[in-house]
Design a protein that fits this description.
Order of helices and strands: EEEEEEEEEEE
Low-confidence stretches: none
Structural class: mainly beta
Strand content: over 45%
Shape: globular
Number of helices: 0
Helix content: under 10%
Largest sheet: 7 strands, mixed
Amino acid sequence: QGELVESGGGLVQAGDSLRLSCSASTRSFSTFTMGWFRQAPGKEREFVGAIKWSGESTHYADSVKGRFTVSRDNAKNTVYLQMTNLKPEDTAVYFCAATFLWLTVTTETYNIWGQGTQVTVSS
């Protein structure tokens, strides 16, 4: 099915911005809805945002709406998560994932996962 590799994580201060990238090795990348999830220590993995295969539609968790933006470049087989006005509660491991579905926010409905990249926001 292919592989997903996230990059771009790091340590930032509250209010800073950061852009994560997720590169896919699958030829069918442009047919997938691509999602971002995150998992903080001791918490369940939660949905952050997703973008339709065409790039024409996105949806987000309420906690990041207005601050995070998902985009994609199908020519580069890459999806991005632009994060602005970061808060300490955004600290987590961020994962990208792929699904053939749309408007789904549960981990069970995503078929391919990356290994994750750590984002730490200091106050």
